[in-house]
Design brief:
Arc Repressor Mutant, subunit A
């Protein structure tokens, strides 16, 4: 078993949660999301991000609007919906429970 594969799977597991949190702070452009995620060492590429954003939009959790750009084509800015806010709050509760449970397990001495 390769360590890298397990690390990638762990990061993928929280990607949607992190993206919803980034969007919940206000309008955001996809490349800014990628930059923040990469800085936080949650590696993501456009080929992963855009399908996830589409899935979140179809679920009614996020929306977007087109904004004209002076330096190129229009840009798509994402915002969170009310449904997305409620969903993210529920994920926050799940995250807190998982974090507490994981900490309990990994902090025990052998």
């Amino acid at each position: 078993m390769k360590l890298e594969n397990t690390q990638v799977q762990m990061r993928k597991g929280i990607l949607e949660f992190c993206i919803l949190h980034i969007i919940s702070r206000g309008e955001v452009y996809a490349s800014d999301m990628i930059e923040e995620l990469t800085t936080a060492k949650i590696m993501v590429v456009e080929g992963t991000l855009y399908p996830l954003l589409t899935r979140l939009r179809k679920a009614g959790l996020v929306d977007y609007k087109w904004v004209e750009s002076v330096s190129g084509p229009p840009r798509k800015y994402y915002t969170i919906t009310e449904k997305g806010k409620a969903f993210t709050q529920q994920l926050d509760e799940t995250w807190a429970q998982l974090k507490a449970s994981t900490t309990q397990i990994i902090s025990k001495n052998n």
